Amino acid sequence: QVQLVESGGGLVQAGDSLRLSCAASGRTFSRYSLGWLRQAPGKEREFVASVGWTGSTTYYSDSVKGRFTIFRDNAKNTVYLQMNTLKPEDTAVYYCATPDRAFSLVRSTEGFDYWGQGTQVTVSS
Fold first, then answer.
1. Average pLDDT of the residues in 59-64
2. Considering the chain, what percentage of its residues have pLDDT values greater than 90?
3. Nearest-CA neighbor of 77 among 7, 23, 27?
4. Between the N and C ends of the chain, which has fewer C-beta atoms within 10 Å?
5. For residues 114 and 43, what is the distance between their CA atoms, to the nearest angstrom?
6. First to last CA, the chain
7. What DSSP element (H or E) covers 94?
């Protein structure tokens, strides 16, 4: 059973940095892409970033490109999201996600099949 557990969220000020972590279990994650989605109040869940199974391929939404960095440690079955220069519009619940199919690159919300419970990130102005 796939399990994804996010941590690292919190309340920060605009311009601050935050690092999210996601511990994955239940499969051989070195074969699967991992990513981050987010959902702000009253809005649909949106794609933030993803990383391929080797860690060498990454995708970002235009809204976070240049500020956020996604990376993974396959030895620890963990994916991270380093968020710099945070803005109030980054406020959302952030979800770690993974697709059902191995060796597939994902660059949209629809490409993910499993996600965790989420961690709240709040950025004050």
1. 98
2. 100
3. 23
4. N
5. 20
6. 40
7. strand 92-98
Which two tokens mark 124? 């004050």
107: its two tokens: 């660059």
Q: What is the pLDDT of residue 11?
A: 98
Distance in angstroms (rounded) separating the CA atoms of residues 114 and 99: 6
Q: Residue 124 corresponds to which amino acid? A: S
Burial class (CB in 10 A: 0-12, 13-18, 19+), 84: middle
Please give the Cα distance from 83 to 20 (Å, whole number).
8
**Which one, of 26, 36, 25, 27, lies nearest residue 81 by Cα?**
36
Is-contact 55 74, C-beta < 8 A? yes
Q: Mean pLDDT of all residues in the chain?
A: 97
